[in-house]
Write a structure and sequence with these properties.
The longest helix has 25 residues, at about 65-85. The strands form 4 sheets. Strands 5-8-2-1-11-13-14-12 form an 8-stranded mixed β-sheet, sandwiched between helices. The protein is an alpha/beta fold. The protein has one domain (about 1-260): 3-Layer(aba) Sandwich (Carbamate kinase). It has helices spanning about 10, 15-25, 40-45, 65-85, 130-135, 160-170, 205-210, 220-230, 245-250; strands at about 1-5, 30-35, 55, 60, 90-95, 105, 120, 140-145, 145-150, 155, 180-185, 200, 235-240, 255-260. Helix 3 crosses helix 4 and helix 6 packs parallel to helix 8 (about 220-230). The chain contains 9 helices and 14 strands. Helix content is about 40%, strand content about 20%. The structure holds adenosine-5'-diphosphate and N-acetyl-L-glutamyl 5-phosphate (X2W).
């Protein structure tokens, strides 16, 4: 089974998004797509006079921002992706974590930083896998927005890389799962300026060294943390690659960066 995540820079480009969705729609067997959209939420926020505030790649979500991200992720982005997949013959169903209680979460506790209405997922055991399996059984492809809920009536904002990791882990109980993080670069790069400097393989030891040397930073840190969390909890393989390489990858060819534990 494929669990694929696409980030904001792909969603923001109509050409890249369409090319990716054509390939995704053709993936064989049951599959699930998680989308981000941080960049689009920030741009829409600016139009509404809401200034984005990010700390370590995570958005500070005040009450106004929660309304914004609920509209942008759960509405605009999710439904546009679903409609495009329908046009490609992929019977997609758009979901947030509240729908079918797929991803219950709790408000992130305030430690040094108050992230506001940010949701932490307990773990893969709280995911409503039964509901996801029911969707697969009737041939539906879930398209999941980066929103969770607190089970008390409030939506919460959760990083899309985390959602992909936790859903892949939960589905790994019953399936052999390949988790693919698609973004706008060819993979994890040794040199951010050089698209041809893809690191083909990263294990836990190498990740530590890359972090210490500053080669891996910003949004790549939570992505890799989430990749290792998934591998530790039963996900078969994690790949970080260009959204344009997904077809190549599922055909068994190398693309991007393979993440393994050892
Ligand atoms: N070594 C690296 N290789 C590639 N990207 C890196 C690296 N270190 C940091 N990054 C940054 O991480 C970003 C990807 O994380 P993020 O912005 O969360 O992506 P997404 O589009 O998937 O949401 C890249 O756009 C890049 O700016
Ligand atoms: C809590 C938190 O930070 N949530 C993210 C969810 C969107 C996301 O992860 O989008 P990308 O994958 O496109 O970055 C945010 O609001 O930016």
């Amino acid at each position: 089974m494929f669990v694929v995540k696409i980030g904001g820079n792909i969603l923001d480009s109509p050409e890249r998004l369409q090319a990716f969705l054509v390939d995704f729609a053709q993936l064989p067997g049951p599959k699930l797509l998680v989308h981000g959209g941080g960049k689009i939420a920030s741009a829409f926020g600016q139009r509404l006079g809401i200034t984005p505030r990010m700390v370590e790649g995570r958005r500070i979500t005040d009450a106004e921002t929660l309304e914004l991200v609920t509209m942008v992720y759960g509405g605009l982005v999710n439904k546009q992706v679903v409609a495009k997949l329908q046009a490609l013959g992929c019977n997609a169903i758009g979901l947030t974590g509240a729908d079918a209680n797929i991803i219950p979460a709790h408000l992130r506790p305030v430690r040094t930083i108050d992230y506001g209405f940010a949701g932490d997922v307990e773990g893969p055991e709280t995911i409503n896998v039964q509901a996801l399996e029911a969707f697969f059984q009737v041939g539906l492809t879930p398209v999941v927005a980066p929103l969770t809920h607190d089970t008390q009536g409030s939506m919460l904002n959760t990083n899309a890389d985390t959602i992909a990791s936790v859903l892949a882990t939960a589905l790994a109980q019953n399936h052999s799962v390949q988790l693919i993080y698609c973004f706008e670069k060819k993979g994890v790069l040794q040199n951010a300026e050089d698209e041809d400097s893809v690191i083909p393989h990263i294990n836990a030891e190498k990740y530590q060294a890359l972090k210490e040397d500053g080669v891996v930073n910003a949004g790549m840190v939570p992505k890799l943390d989430n990749a290792f969390a998934a591998l530790q909890q039963g996900v078969q393989a994690v790949q970080i690659c260009d959204a344009a390489a997904i077809k190549q990858l599922v055909e068994g060819n190398n693309a991007g960066t393979l993440i393994t534990f050892s």
